[in-house]
Design goal:
This protein is of the alpha/beta class and about 300 residues long. It contains ten helices and twelve strands.
């Protein structure tokens, strides 16, 4: 069993802060993240325990200055890996000796594991329908495309940079034999795309909306409802004397890493390692965690 830490706005601060709700949030969190207490639970049938810290719900800058206040606590509590929920990796300066996770690998794994079921649920024929993937950040869209390409025949990639599109198309052609269509502008209403998968937050395409399409899925945007739909019930639970929180990809990923002993490296940001996703699937299969039993709402 590995010790884990979780920094999340879904964790309430320890009890003494509850008596001072009238104090502005900015003041209460000015010294760093507030301690939430000990967390315990199960991943499958494996017991886990760790520690939680509450994160201010309001957007703040300068988070990199606050990590130092936690380094001593993590060392004293022998925390090996920490999940960071609701923080931008661009605002972090990671302490050495502790691994970090933001949940993207697990979120994508569960989406791909459920992809065939999603197609049936949305009445999308994988042999005739075209699936579009739109992204701007890092390699998020490419990794998603590599994983779902084995289930479909027609794929369209949308990204503002022509060089990244050419590279992504070449990778997919070499790996799967699929020659995807590419474009730098968002799809319009006239294009017959049966499903759009948005990977990450959009800035360049911010004004574009996928609501006109028959099926639209958002990955890596911090939405718990998507993860809970994919996950179903009974995947993992965590609780503590002062805190409980909903299932999230960050929580799941940090628990898996703690149990597996994958404490090195930082699993955060917009560049996903393809091999890590496959490794995570293999480990969950060994644990007997029912990843494939999730039901769509």
């Amino acid at each position: 069993m590995g010790n884990f830490g979780l920094v999340s706005s879904y964790l309430p601060a320890a009890a003494y802060w509850k008596r001072w709700q009238w104090i502005p949030e900015g003041w209460r969190y000015r010294q760093g993240f507030a301690f939430a207490g000990k967390l315990s639970g199960y991943l499958g049938h494996v017991p886990v325990e760790g520690w939680g810290w509450s994160l201010a719900r309001g957007q703040r800058t300068g988070y990199s200055l606050l990590w130092k206040a936690l380094e001593r606590e993590w060392t004293a509590k022998e925390v090996d890996v920490v999940g960071v929920d609701g923080l931008s990796s661009g605002e972090m300066t990671f302490p050495s000796g502790v691994g970090f996770s933001d949940g993207k690998s697990l979120e994508l794994l569960l989406f791909v594991q459920q992809f065939k079921r999603i197609l049936r649920h949305c009445q999308v024929n994988p042999q005739t329908a075209e699936i579009g993937i739109i992204w701007e950040e890092g390699n998020l869209g490419l990794v998603c495309a590599r994983l779902i390409a084995q289930h479909i025949r027609f794929l369209r990639l949308i990204h503002p940079d022509a060089g990244r599109l050419d590279h992504a198309a070449a990778v997919l052609l070499a790996e799967t034999g699929i020659s995807p269509k590419i474009q730098q502008v968002p799809p319009d209403k006239e294009q017959r795309i049966s499903m759009i998968i948005q990977c990450g937050l959009l800035n360049h395409y911010r004004s574009w909306s996928g609501s006109e399409f028959s099926s639209y899925w958002e990955l890596f945007t911090g939405r718990l409802d998507l993860f809970q739909r994919l996950m179903g019930d009974g995947f993992f639970t965590v609780w503590g004397p002062l805190a409980s929180l909903p299932a999230s990809p960050v929580l799941g990923e940090v628990l898996i890493r703690a149990i597996a002993g994958w404490s090195s490296e930082q699993w955060v940001g917009t560049e996903l390692r393809f091999e890590r996703i496959l490794l995570m699937k293999e480990y969950l299969d060994q644990l007997g965690v029912p990843v494939l039993s999730a039901r769509l709402a």
